[in-house]
Amino acid sequence: MTLSEAVPLRTLLIAMGGLAVALALIEGVVLTWLRRGYDWGESLASLAVAVGRRLFEAVPLAVAMPGGFWLYEHRLWTLPLDAWWTWLALFAGVEFCYYWYHRCAHRVRWFWASHAVHHSANAFNLSAAYRLSWTGRLTGTLVFFLPLAWLGFPPQAIAAAFVLNLLYQFWIHAGWIPRLGPLEGILNTPSAHRVHHAANLDYLDANYGGVLLVFDRLFGTWVPERDDLPCRYGLVEPLTSRNPFRIAFFQWVALLRDLRGARSPRAVAGYLFGPPGWAPDGPGTTTEALRACAARAAAPGPSGADAPAMPPAAAVAR
Ligand SMILES: [Zn+2]
Ligand SMILES: [Zn+2]
């Protein structure tokens, strides 16, 4: 695919973006009219973040996917771009790489600093779909897709497939679509994605797939939505700001603050590449630490009574 061939796709994407905003507005109007509750402030903040993100779309693909063109020049195979199975293989490959990108985006703080933007809304609605990071193109999101360039997929096609994958994910941000029966656990559905956006301890770090959930099933990260556990949306420590600049950069500011206080190379590496909530001394506030703390607090008898309290929200840097 040449750049000129990619232009119609870009035009299509702008149109799809406009349609997404229109649908999110209609959702807001209908939910408000039905008195189902709709947070217009969060929705407008998401729109502002989406507008700001456009400034970063000028970052060239060679920067967003460093080494991608070099790997493609030294590719293992030249795939026929007019064969349907090439595109099917690209879809499967992007889905696999997306799973690992998204899992690392939640488990490695460097990537979480960008991805947390998407999870910062405290309401779950269609507008959350376009609350996406400004810094992902500068911080290596697309390096997870480099093996595909080496296998013979053009970097432009990989980037386009990645964007189409995100486009699919628009509708799964509907809080009002019920569970979809046999599709659950196969396709990424609104129910599965509600769990992904939930900050409840039982729901953290689950359902990373883009279009499919098969890799979550395969690698043990699929968690179905439960009737007895309503989702609490947003971050573990909720972000209440609706300032798009703060939403885009609050995790980077927190990371820089921690790095400034680091006293050893191990602390620097831990803050950068450990899971969110990692601390150089003590258990920190990682998912595992929070769950262990909750389990001790819930345990009956003396061990439960002696259990340390959950870390204060202000200490939860995630
Ligand atoms: Zn996520
Ligand atoms: Zn989402």
Structure characterization notes:
The radius of gyration is 20 Å and the shape is globular. It has helices at 3-33, 40-53, 61-64, 68-73, 84-107, 109-115, 146-151, 155-168, 190-197, 214-219, 244-260, 265-273, 287-298, 302-306. By secondary structure, it is mainly alpha-helical. Residues 312-317 have low confidence and may be disordered. The protein starts with a helix and ends in a 12-residue tail after the last helix. It is built from 14 helices and no strands. It has two domains: 3-219, no CATH class; 252-315, no CATH class. It binds zinc ion (ZN) (2 copies). One zinc ion binds at residues 102, 105-106, 115, 118-119, 196.
Detail the topology: elements first, then pairings.
Layout: H1 3-33, H2 40-53, H3 61-64, H4 68-73, H5 84-107, H6 109-115, H7 146-151, H8 155-168, H9 190-197, H10 214-219, H11 244-260, H12 265-273, H13 287-298, H14 302-306
Helix pairs in contact: 1-8, 2-11, 5-6, 5-8, 6-11
This protein binds zinc ion (ZN) (2 copies).
Residues 118, 173, 193, 197 line the site of one zinc ion (ZN).
